[in-house]
Amino acid sequence: MDYGIGIPSYIDAWREVQAAEEAGFSHAWFYDSQLIYSDVWATMALAAEKTSKI
Asked: pTM, whole model, 2 decimals?
């Protein structure tokens, strides 16, 4: 069974993605909002750089 996690798109969200990967989560998705959160593409790029499976 695969487990995922939803995370708000803020610039330090990669730390939560890294912790989720270490806990065994297989995927992550990010909330997108033009007014509330950071740029989702930058958040995903940082998360991809810091993880190997998610």
From this structure: 0.81
